Amino acid sequence: MSTNRVNYLAVNDDNNSPNRSDTDKQYILVVLLLTFVLPILGLFLEHLTSNVSLTFALFCKWFIFSAVGLRLFSAGVRQVITPEFTARQIFHIYNRDSLPIVRELGFANLCFGLVGLISLFKPEWRMVSAFASGFFYGIAGVQHLIKSPVGTNEKFALWTDLVIFIILALYFIETI
């Protein structure tokens, strides 16, 4: 394809151009909330209301539900409906040809997210979710690292992906 025919995503729009600061504070806030705040909140609420011990397994119950289930499901919905955000803000790709691939990533995220959501009600699904989504997060984190992230959103995705991978790997190892 010649460079004259490349169909870029809104590169002439000041709010979406590749030269603008790529930090999306809403993205960072939502990821922090889903990855760290909600699992800790769920842990303490269940501890206080059900008089169960504070354990790593209890934390992982809520971590898998939120950091995997809610985060991946919501990311999948966003990638299916508006793949431009992930293409631009995470991968710094401004070519419309990438949108079907991002949309397919969204379908994968929906599936991983559903397993994490269901694991709140079906505890036997937690190990499966920890294994599959943990592997997914680990590979994604390594891929971000190899690519050498250029923007704040991508760097944030790199580190949260790796933290999630480590927590899920520890849960999986403890559970087997």
Structure description:
The N and C termini lie far apart (50 Å). This protein has helices spanning 25-50, 56-81, 83-90, 99-118, 125-147, 152-175. The chain is elongated and about 50 Å long. It contains six helices and no strands. It has one domain (22-175). α2 (56-81) crosses α3, α2 (56-81) packs across α6 and α5 (125-147) runs antiparallel to α6 (152-175). By secondary structure, the protein is an all-alpha fold.
Strand content: under 5%
Q: SS-based structural class?
A: mainly alpha
Mean pLDDT: 90
Biggest pleated-sheet summary? none
Spatial extent as radius of gyration: 18 Å
H-E string: HHHHHH
In whole angstroms, the N-to-C terminal distance is 50 Å
Low-confidence stretches: 1-8, 10-17
Quaternary state of this entry equals: single chain
Provide the domain count.
Answer: 1
Shape: elongated
Total beta strands = 0
Feature tags:
single chain; 176 residues; mainly alpha; disordered N terminus
What's the quick description here?
The chain is an all-alpha fold and 176 residues long.
Lay out the secondary structure.
Blueprint lengths: L24 H26 L5 H26 L1 H8 L8 H20 L6 H23 L4 H24 L1
Helix pairs in contact: 1-2, 1-6, 2-3, 2-4, 2-5, 2-6, 3-4, 4-5, 5-6
